[in-house]
Amino acid sequence: MDFKQLEAFVQISKLQSFSKASEALFLTQPTLSNQINILEKEIGTQLLVRSTKKIYPTKAGVKFYEHAQNMLALRDQSLFEMGKFTKECAGEINILASSVPAQYLLPQLISDFNKEYTNIVFRLYQRDSGVVFEELSQYQYDIGFVGTETESSRYKLTAFCKDQLVLVLPKSMRYTGCRNASDIVSFISNKNFIMRELGSGTRAKMQLFLNQNKMYEKDMKIVAYFSSTQGIVEAVSKGLGISFVSKAAASIYKRLNLVNMVEIESEELSRDIFYVLKKDMILTPAQELFINYAKNYYKR
Predict the structure, then answer these.
(1) C-alpha closest to that of 64 among 91, 40, 35, 37
(2) Strand pairing report for 221-226 and 192-196
(3) pLDDT over 90 for what percent of the chain?
(4) How many degrees, rounded to 5, is the angle at CA 291 between CA 285 and CA 297?
(5) Helix (H, G, I), strand (E, B), or coil: what is residue 75?
(6) pLDDT at 53
(7) In the chain, which ranges are E strands?
(8) What CA–CA distance (Å, rounded) separates 128 from 134?
(9) Do the domains 1-84 and 162-270 sit in the same CATH topology, yes or no?
(10) Residue 66's beta-bridge partner residues?
(11) Average pLDDT for residues 216-222, to the nearest whole number?
C-alpha cells in the first residue's frame, strides 16, 4: 500500500468518478483503475462499487476512507512540520454549510484566505443546518459551517463569529414603534409573514423568539415558506410580506435601498455561527490553515 493508491481511492470516492479523479490527479484512468485493483487485493476486499452511473464506496470502503484520509493527513502534517509547506501549502477543502454561512460569510472569508494561500481549492456545498449534521459524516465533506447546535456526539462545534436576526420589511412599509420584543411581536401579528422551512437554523432561532413572546405559527398570517434566506429577502423586497433573516443578508439589501431593516433589542435573536469538525478527524495542513484563519478572521 502506498500514498498514491490512497490518494486515488480518496479522490474517486469524493468525486464519484474515475474520469474526474484522473483529471484531479493528472493520471490516466487505466492507471487509477490499476491502483485501486492493487489496493483492493492488498486489503482483501472490494472498496468501490463500479456502476454505470457513478462510483461509490462499499460499506468496507466507507470505513477504509476514514483511515485513508487520516493517513494522508498525517503525511501532509509531517511534511508541514519539516518545513515543506509555507505559503505554497496546497490542497482541497470540501465545505458543507447552511445558507447564511454559505451565501453571506464564507465567500468573503474564502476570498481573503485565497489572497494569502493561492494553491488551496475549495468546494462549497449548501444545505439546511439539520441536513448539514446529517450529511457531514459522509466521506465527501471535510468541514461544516452552521448557525445552530446539535446534540450529536459525532461532531465538535466551535463558535467563530456572531450573527443576529433582524426584521426585514418592504420599502413601502415602516416601523416606528419601540425595538423591544413585545412591540415587535404585536407589529408582526397582523402582517403577511414569510417563514423559513423546517431544518433551518434561522427558523429555529426565530421560532424560539416568537414562542417565548407568546406568538405561535398557527396564529400568524403566513403567506409562504421559503427554502433560502436570499429567496425570503427577495420576496420581502417585492412586497410579499415581512420576515426575520440574518443581518448579514439583510444589510446587503438595505444598502441597495430595497428593504427596510429593524434591529431588535433582544438577546434571543443573537446566535453563534459554528464551524463543525468530525471527532477524531486529523486535519490536513490546508484544512488546519483555513480553520485557524477562520477563527481569527472576525477578531480583527
Answers:
(1) 40
(2) parallel
(3) 51
(4) 130
(5) helix
(6) 74
(7) 48-50, 55-57, 91-97, 120-126, 143-146, 155-170, 192-196, 221-226, 243-246, 259-262, 270-278
(8) 10
(9) no
(10) none
(11) 94
Q: How far is CA 16 from CA 25, 60, 61, 84, 286, in A?
A: 14, 16, 13, 30, 22
Give the model's confidence band at 171: pLDDT under 50 very low, under 70 low, under 90 confident, else very high: very high
- Helices within 104-170 (DSSP H only): 106-116, 129-135
Burial of 246 (0-12, 13-18, 19+ CB in 10 A): buried
CA dist 277 and 94 (Å) reads 12
Q: Residue ranges per domain, the chain?
A: 1-84, 162-270
Radius of gyration (C-alpha) of the chain in whole angstroms: 23
CA–CA gap between residue 198 and residue 148 (Å, rounded): 13
- Average pLDDT of every residue of the chain: 90
Enter the C-alpha cell of residue 23.
483529471
pLDDT at residue 300, rounded to an integer: 59
Any bridge partners for residue 261, and if so which? 168
pLDDT at 83: 60
| Sign of the dihedral defined by the CA atoms of residues 79, 75, 115, 164, in that order | negative
Give the separation between CA 77 and CA 228, rounded to whole angstroms: 38
**Please, what CATH class does the domain formed by 1-84 belong to?**
mainly alpha
Q: Which three cell numbers stand for residue 79?
A: 511534511
Beta bridge partner(s), residue 193? 222, 242
pLDDT for res 196: 92
Hey, which CATH number is domain 162-270, 3.40.190.10, 3.40.640.10, 1.10.10.10, 3.40.50.300?
3.40.190.10
pTM (two decimals): 0.70
Q: Please, are residues 257 and 146 in contact by the beta-carbon 8 Å criterion?
A: no
